[in-house]
Amino acid sequence: MMKTSGFTLLEIVVVVGIVAVLGTLSLVSFSNSRKVRDLTTTGQNVLSVLQAARAKAAAGEEGSQWGVHVDASQVVLFRGALYSASTSTTAYTLPSTIEIVSIDLAGGHDAVFKRIDGSTKENGSFVVRVKGSSTQTFPVAVDPDGNSYLAGTAPAPVGARIVDARHRAFALGWSIKTATTLTLNFNDSSVIDSIPMAGYFNADKSAFDWSGTVAVSGLNQALRIHATSLSDATTTLSVDHDCRRNNQKLDIAIDGQDIATFVADCKSVSLGTSGGVMSEP
C-alpha cells in the first residue's frame, strides 16, 4: 500500500516558526537601520542649528548675540543673551527615536555666541543618541571659539579664526591670576577702556577670556584677549586683532604693565616692557 506524500504537522510547525523568526529579524534590522539614519540626520541637523547661530552672531545680525538652547527633545535657535519663548526663532524637534543626553554647556543647556567673533563662554558637549542606547551615539562638541562638530573631529585650531599679521601670542613670564584691570588705550588716550577682569576668569582662574568691541572715532574696534596658558607662575596671552575690524592704534596693559602696542597701519606690533616674548600663534 502506497503512502500519500505530504508534510507532517511537525514539519509545518517548524517551517512556520522559521518564517516567523526570519520575519522578526528583518523587522528588527529595518528598525535599526532606520534609527541609524535618524541618528545621523539628526546629528547633522543639530550641528546646522549651532553653526547657524554662530554665523548670525558673527555677522551681527539684528545687532544681537545668537544662541542655541538644547534639551532632551529639541534644539532651539534664539536671539539675544538669554533663552526664552519670546526670543526663540526656530525650533528643531528630534524624531521620536532620538534623544539628547549628557548636556553640559558650561553647566547649562544654552550656548550663546558673541557678536563679531562668534566665540562662546558656554563651550561644552552633549550626546545625540538613539533612545536608550549607549552605543548608537552622535556626540557633539562646542569649543570656546564657537566651532561645533562631531566630537573627535575638531577643526585645526588655526581654522577657528581669521589669521593675519595682527594676531600675537605673549609668553609674559608672570601670572595674571591676581590682576584686576585690562586697559585698552586707543590713539594715545583718545579712548581708554578699563575692563574689570574678574568676570572673565573661570572659577579656579586657570583660564581668562575677554572679547568685545570699543567705539573709536565712530568705528567699532573688535578684538579678543585670552590666556592660552595660565598658572600661578606665568601666562601665555593671545591677542586676536583682525585688520578688517581694527584700524586704530592700540596699547594693551594689565594693571599698568605694558603688554604691546598695535599700530594703526596693520603691519606691525611693538612689544611692551612687560610683554615677555612675542610670537605669531
TrEMBL record:
Tagged with keyword Membrane: yes
Record keywords: Membrane, Transmembrane, Transmembrane helix
Membrane-crossing residue ranges in chain numbering: 6-28
SUPFAM superfamilies: Pili subunits
Domain of life: Bacteria
Protein name per Swiss-Prot or TrEMBL: Prepilin-type N-terminal cleavage/methylation domain-containing protein
Organism: Candidatus Sungiibacteriota bacterium
